[in-house]
Amino acid sequence: MRLENKVAVVTGASSGMGHAIVELFAREGAKVVAVARRKERLEELAASLADAPGEVAVYPGDISSREVNEGMIDFAVKQFGTLDILVNNAGIMDDMSPVGDATDEKYEQVMAVNVYGPLAAMRAAVNAFKASGTKGSIVNVASVGGMRSCAGAIYCASKAALISLTKNTAYMYMADGIRTNCIAPGGIVTEIATSMGVPNPAGYGRIKPVLDCAPAPGSAEEIAAAALFLASDEASYVNGAVLPVDGGWIAG
Ligand SMILES: NC(=O)c1ccc[n+]([C@@H]2O[C@H](COP(=O)([O-])OP(=O)(O)OC[C@H]3O[C@@H](n4cnc5c(N)ncnc54)[C@H](OP(=O)(O)O)[C@@H]3O)[C@@H](O)[C@H]2O)c1
Q: Where is the signal peptide (predicted)?
């Protein structure tokens, strides 16, 4: 097993990629704290993995809150004795608006979940790693939208910020043996579209030709496989990387 005796916190675990990451990590022997707002979904996930070699504990909460980010890291340490891995996966879309139509409300909402949450979680995690001398691993889930314009202004800005936070954290803590990497998924079949609402027609019209260049969508399991590699000791010399998992979309 590739994560035996490792303790992980995974956000956005109630659906899509986060759900698949918790499943794979638990099957690879990890003790996992599963975080999202929908408690019943987390409990169903934990119950479905009762026979897995690892263990799943649930921590319901909204990751745009400082208390939840700090609480989930403290909970992992209290529940399982340490922390080795943080996966900042939870995220929401904007409505594909160009900057001229981008609202302050949408900015605050998307930045709180896609940028502030990961920042607060990374802060708590690196301080926990340093307190215990753990050579921890952080995996952030950004997007190809942080590298090219395939969503609205606010979403793309939020994911570019997360890529920047990844590289900065990788560099700042490399002497401590703490690794921070990032996955940039392309189009993946999940529930993400439900966070978009009605797309802005002008923005969607500009983005449609970019979406038309994408290959067939990938699966949440394909993202989980990348997260497993980056989180595990197999990636011991990978730090500050941005790994597109997009079927070649941004290669074009
Ligand atoms: N699907 C794609 O094509 C795609 C492409 C590129 C990047 N991504 C990124 O991949 C990540 C995972 O998304 P997904 O596609 O798997 O979407 P998803 O199926 O909608 O899952 C999103 C997860 O985030 C959680 N979440 C959302 N807001 C939250 C909050 N305030 N507090 C705590 N948890 C919250 C949701 O749980 P609750 O609602 O229960 O809180 C859910 O578990 C996101 O960061 C997304 O931006 C997705």
A: none
Both structure tokens of 97: 């608006």
- The four Cα atoms 237, 22, 169, 90 give a dihedral, to 10 degrees, of 150
Q: Ligand 1 within 6 A of 83 CB?
A: no
How many CB atoms are closer than 10 A to CB 2? 16
- pTM beyond 0.70: yes
- Give the position, in ligand 1's atom list, of the atom nearest the Cα of 220: 16
Do 153 and 100 meet the contact criterion of CB atoms below 8 Å apart? Answer: no
Residue 74 three-state SS: helix
pLDDT at 27: 98
Asked if 231 contacts 5 with a C-beta cutoff of 8 angstroms, the reply is: no
> Is the minimum distance from the CB of 58 to ligand 1 under 6 angstroms?
no
State the Cα–Cα distance between residues 132 and 134, nearest whole angstrom. Answer: 5
